[in-house]
Automatic annotation (TrEMBL):
This is Diguanylate cyclase (GGDEF) domain-containing protein. GO terms for molecular function: cyclic-guanylate-specific phosphodiesterase activity. Residues 24-277 form the EAL domain. Keywords: Membrane, Transmembrane, Transmembrane helix. The keyword Zinc-finger does not apply.
Length: 291
């Protein structure tokens, strides 16, 4: 946006700063204070066992309630945060909110694992592993209860460096999940060389399953190959019963989507959990039990 300075040293800005660029520039400057002022929050979307329907974890999804623009979707500000070099603080903020909740659940004898999305940029930050380690320690959450969701691009772009980072993260006990699988350029064989525990079939395939055989075939292939490599499989974007049944029949391990639940604020998640039989028995008196 501001890279228009010519050799004369005189900035030659684009004559009209369009509305969208203006807004993006403004949002960038507001991100920091938005965190401090509590405009950035998180919601949690349940992930269930495909066979038993028990809740097995929740994915943390960031939300920005802007005082003038209203709700801004993550797809509208994650990329921006990356571009202006503020994705690190944003990630720390989300991790902090997620682990604080996880600790609170632990105090209620609910050992619910939380997943946090990690932007591709974060893998390049030299202090990432240290920050994650310190966050776990600060909240007193065992690494085993944290999953980090990565995107394919982030590990394939610089696979040597990222394999070291991933190994260090893995050594903290946490699990690594390959998000949006099937949309990027990685192959399952590349995944085998990395300490990845799980793949999430991208919702673009899952959403099409009830109407397209092609989509179903892709899902089935991913599940089979992933299982052969010893990886667990999560399907995201499960919206209807037919898709759910198809995935269960294909042996998909975990399901996430509007059919199960929309992403929920903390208090609504707790009532959602309590309303489900598969989990009620696990709540009293069994600290650190994985649901
Ligand atoms: P994602 O990690 O693949 O998350 C899943 C997205 O799919 C979420 O959108 C979720 O609300 C949506 N979703 C879940 N179930 C269904 C369904 O059944 N149907 C449909 N149509 N959609 C469903 P959301 O919350 O808008 O997040 C979008 C993306 O933004 C995420 O995709 C993730 O890549 C990114 N994101 C969200 N929170 C964070 C964060 O804290 N850090 C980073 N780096 N990225 C984040
Ligand atoms: Mg995700
Ligand atoms: Mg995804
Ligand atoms: Mg996505």
């Amino acid at each position: 946006l501001l890279a228009g300075a010519g050799s004369s040293g005189v900035a030659s800005y684009h004559p009209v700063l369009d509305q969208q660029s203006l807004r993006r520039l403004q949002l960038g400057t507001e991100l920091e204070s938005a965190m401090v002022e509590g405009q950035i929050s998180v919601v949690f979307q349940p992930i269930i066992d495909a066979r038993t329907s028990d809740i097995v974890s929740v994915e943390t999804l960031v939300r920005w309630a802007h005082p003038r623009y209203g709700a801004i979707a993550p797809d509208d500000f994650i990329h921006l945060a990356e571009q202006i070099g503020r994705i690190g603080p944003l990630t720390d903020h989300v991790l902090d909110l997620a682990l604080a909740r996880c600790r609170k659940w632990l105090d209620q004898d609910i050992a619910l694992s939380v997943a946090v999305n990690l932007s591709a940029r974060c893998l390049g930050e030299p202090d990432l592993v240290d920050r994650v380690r310190r966050a776990l320690r600060r909240h007193g959450v065992p690494g085993e209860l944290l999953t980090l969701e990565l995107t394919e691009g982030s590990v394939v772009d610089d696979s040597v460096r990222s394999s070291t980072v991933l190994a260090d993260l893995h050594a903290l006990g946490l699990r690594l999940s390959m998000d949006d699988f099937g949309t990027g350029y990685s192959s399952l064989s590349q995944l085998r060389q990395l300490p990845i525990d799980e793949v999430k079939i991208d919702k673009s395939f899952v959403l099409g399953m009830s109407t397209s055989q092609g989509e179903s075939f892709i899902a089935r292939s991913i599940i089979e190959l992933a299982h052969n490599l010893g990886l667990r499989v999560v399907a995201e974007g499960v919206e209807d019963e037919l898709t759910r049944n198809l995935l269960a029949e294909m042996g998909c391990d975990k399901l996430q989507g509007f059919l199960v639940s929309r992403p929920l604020p903390d208090d609504r998640l707790e009532s959602w959990i309590l309303a489900r039989t598969g989990v009620r028995s696990a709540i009293p008196g069994t600290p650190h039990r994985r649901l």
